[in-house]
Amino acid sequence: MNSRDPKLVALLFNECINNQDLDGLGLLMTDDHTFIDREGKVGRPKETMIQGWNRFFQMFPKYRNTFNRIQSKDNRVAILGFAYWSEEQPYDPVIWTGTIVNDLIQEWRVYADTEANRGQFDLL
Question: How distant, in Å, are the alpha carbons of 12, 40, 53, 95 from that of 120?
Answer without folding.
Answer: 24, 16, 27, 11
